[in-house]
Specification:
The protein is of the alpha/beta class. Helices cover about 30% and strands about 30% of the residues. The strands form 5 sheets. Strands 1, 2, 3, 4, 5, 6, 7, 16, 17, 18, 19 and 20 form a 12-stranded mixed β-sheet that branches. The chain has a two-stranded antiparallel sheet with strand order 8-13. The radius of gyration is 25 Å and the shape is globular.
């Protein structure tokens, strides 16, 4: 080390010379730099065993997984219960985030800070966006986006806050684009025709060790290619009737579908018009209130992830005739837990 060489080259002396003071300052700088690098790498404030981190939003989703976890140990961190153990042969840590983007963000980062998480998995339910999906289907999207992160303009014109149309960089923002063009804003249906909302999608700003100090803008976050490839090989036997009320069953056999785009936002989506806009504009498969935030945290920390979401209903669509099967029987959480467990079994064999 430079500071050590500096000290050893100096002759013995009484008191503090300028040379010794310079060496001391160099030593302090080296220690601070080493400490910063160590802090950047540290991932296990509570437990350092390599694990798969599993996050769920609803208690019913996590309970099924927790029941089958062996050697459980609970950790209380900032009021949140993290449970470590072995699930289908894999060391895991499981946590319930609670509904919302903010909760998912905070809990996922806590998990990464306190445990040695090698891969992340989100397991839960979601509202359908693609009308081709049915209640009880489980979808593992290839990408996750947050289209409700918007620039809300005063009219339907393209924002031009920083001079040119579409330029909002002076505000520290970036509009989401497709083939170089800003994605269209949502338009309300009125008796007189469609009316612009002025809500234009934005990219999300992300800071990571790889992109510091400038950071980057991204519209969506990619699920791990290896985990997606394994998911495509699975053939889980999904239920048509849930355990809470076996008399309530879906008319179409649920299936696992891998690929496409998932979306998340802070709004509980119960608007058929906006759902149609999301499908036509983004070809979105489903919508929830956690996974894209979870995906951004995973990306920022360099941790591979996948998310399994079971369709509970068609978001904002009372026309989804099988909706009662989810709310009455617990079908959706049963099927997503089934896929998660089958995936973990396959992942263990792969390893």
């Amino acid at each position: 080390m430079l500071w050590l060489a500096c000290l050893t080259r100096l002759p013995p002396a009484k008191g503090i010379s300028m040379n010794r003071l310079a060496c001391a300052l160099l030593a302090l700088a080296a220690l601070l730099t080493t400490g910063a690098a160590h802090a950047e790498r540290k991932r296990c404030l509570s437990d350092c065993k390599p694990r798969i981190g599993i996050v769920s939003a609803f208690g019913a989703e996590a309970d099924i997984l927790l029941e089958q976890t062996q050697g459980k140990r609970d950790w209380r961190i900032n009021g949140n219960r993290f449970t470590t153990g072995v699930l289908r042969g894999n060391p895991v840590v499981i946590v319930l985030s609670g509904v919302s983007m903010v909760n998912a963000t905070m809990v996922t980062q806590l998990m990464l800070d306190h445990f040695h998480v090698e891969r992340l998995l989100m397991s839960g339910i979601a509202g359908g966006v693609n009308p081709a999906n049915h209640v009880g289907d489980v979808v593992a999207p290839a990408t996750w986006a947050m289209p409700m992160e918007v620039y809300w303009n005063g009219d339907g014109s393209l924002p031009a806050a920083c001079g040119n149309a579409g330029d909002v960089a002076c505000l520290g923002l970036k509009l989401a684009t497709d083939n170089g063009q800003a994605r269209p804003d949502y338009r309300f249906d009125t008796p007189g025709g469609k009316v612009s909302s002025g809500m234009f999608m934005r990219d999300s700003f992300v800071m990571s060790a790889a992109t510091a100090p400038g950071g980057e803008f991204r519209f969506e976050f990619q699920a791990d290619a290896q985990m997606l490839a394994l998911a495509r090989t699975l053939q889980p036997a999904l239920a048509t009737c849930g355990p809470k009320n076996p008399a309530l069953c879906v008319s179409t056999q649920p299936a696992l579908k891998v690929g496409g785009r998932g979306i998340s936002g802070t709004a509980f989506l119960a608007n058929a018009g906006y759902r149609t806009y999301l499908y036509e504009t983004l070809q979105a498969q489903l919508v929830d209130m956690e996974t894209a935030a979870f995906a951004q945290v995973a990306y920022a920390n360099g941790v591979p992830f996948i998310a399994f979401r079971s369709v509970s209903d068609l978001a904002g669509g009372n026309d989804f005739k099988d909706v009662g099967a989810f709310f009455g029987s617990g079908l959706a959480e049963t099927n997503e837990a089934k896929v998660t467990l089958v995936f973990l079994e396959a992942w263990k064999r792969r390893r």
